[in-house]
Amino acid sequence: MLLSTVLISIIYFSLIALFIKGWRQIPTFHFRADRPTKTKISVIVACRNEAENLPTLLNSLRNQSTQSFQLILIDDHSTDSTFEIMKLSENDFEDVLILQSVNYGKKQALKLGIEHASNELILTTDADCSAPPTWLETVIQYQEHTKSDLIIGLVAIEPADTFFEKMQQLEFLSLVSSGAGAAGIGQPIMCNGANLVFQKQAWLDNYSNLHPKSNTGDDVFLLHALKKQNRNINFLKSEQAIVSTKACNSIQSFFNQRKRWASKAPLYTDFVTILVALVVFTASFMQVILFVSSFINPANLLLLAFLSIVKLAIDSFFLLQTSWFFGQKITAQTYFTLAVIYPFYIIYSAVTGIFKGLKIKSN
After folding, report:
1. How far apart, in whole angstroms, are the C-alpha atoms of residue 298 and residue 11?
2. What burial class does residue 85 get, using C-beta atoms within 10 Å of its C-beta: 0-12 exposed, 13-18 middle, 19+ buried?
3. What is d(CA 356, CA 350) in angstroms, rounded to the nearest whole number?
4. Coil, strand or helix: which one is 157?
5. CA distance 165 to 232
6. Segments in the chain forming alpha helices (H)
7. Which of 230, 243, 185 is CA-nearest to residue 20?
8. Distance, CA of 67 to CA of 195 (rounded, Å)
9. Which of 47, 104, 152, 328 would bridge 323 by S-S if both were Cys, CB 3.0 to 4.6 A apart?
10. Residues 176, 36: Cα–Cα separation, whole Å
11. What is the secondary structure of 56-100 as a DSSP string?
12. Comparing 42-46, 252-256, 301-305, which segment has the lowest mean pLDDT?
């Protein structure tokens, strides 16, 4: 047990140290108002029962510093007033297209929207998001600077009020930070469709690689497919292009979301992504094993303390850097509470999500 604990501690520490190096290596990109852009972009939003959230996103798009973009809104069989809200926005934008998806599911809705896009550069986001006024211009300037096939954008949880929201904000920050760090060392492993930019033809050419039967993963599967093809993938590290999204409003919706994310794991083919997931899962699993076994062998409490201190030290060092960039404040109470809960939560979410993913894979 001692050897396993020390080995896992070293591997986990080394992994997060690499992420820290990667985060630091990504240059910060700044929007310049005096730099005119020429590239046209299509913003695509697939919605299902988003009547409560969609007005905020639409208002955010109305306030963009450039209105020279195509907006495509796709209704995925909503049973609320989502489609009516879409129709009411038709006169608010220079170029807007409202569609209703015939087939069910986000990927089918996105496919419909992307097929109808008049521009080669595509940006996807979600209905429960908002963005700063410089978002689109910053994205376009970065694309013209890097000539990217795919741009991974930053996403953050909106300013939190309740303790539960603050926990989500910190946990989500750790995910985004890890994804950024991995991209910084040239091994992108994750992205978020709430702020994702890619070439239209690349998405259509890789549609079969997006696992259409799975109701999630349209973003990560595209990333992995383009990574395998050695396409030009970049991470946009810019405070002027951070998309904000809402926290889950209940514990049940939070776990359902995380299980849905975890269900993608059995479909992963990228070695680095699988390796990182195994390291994180194994470190958490070892913490739980040491905690449970300490009731039989109290000496295991020392091993648990050692592993936990290693994780706390390297994780806090990393998150303090990234939280500063996001303008988020981490409190000791939130951090230590999440550190205690996280190993149990990650095991539950991973196991239940993977079983769900295996069912999808077998169909």
Report:
1. 25
2. buried
3. 10
4. strand
5. 35
6. 2-25, 54-62, 82-88, 106-115, 135-146, 163-184, 200-205, 218-228, 251-262, 271-293, 300-326, 332-362
7. 185
8. 18
9. 328
10. 30
11. HHHHHHHT-S---SEEEEEE-S-SSSHHHHHHHTGGGSSEEEEEE
12. 252-256
Whether 223 and 212 have beta carbons less than 8 Å apart is answered as: no
Residue showing tokens 């996105």 = 110
Question: pLDDT, tens digit, for every residue of 26-78?
Answer: 999 999 888 888 899 999 999 999 999 999 999 999 999 999 999 999 999 99
Beta pairing partners, 74: 46, 99
CATH for the stretch 27-159+188-246 = 3.90.550.10
Q: What pairing do the DSSP bridges indicate for beta strands 233-235 and 155-157?
A: unpaired
Phi-psi sector, 359: left (phi>0), alpha (psi -120 to 50), beta: alpha
Edge-to-edge strands, sheet with 155-157: 129-130, 243-245, 155-157
The token pair that represents 46 in the structure block: 């697939």
Per-residue tokens: 32 = 């310049």
The candidate with the shortest Cα–Cα distance to 287, out of 353, 352, 347, is 347
Place of tokens 């990228």: 270
27: left (phi over 0), alpha (psi -120 to 50) or beta: beta
Q: pTM here?
A: 0.92
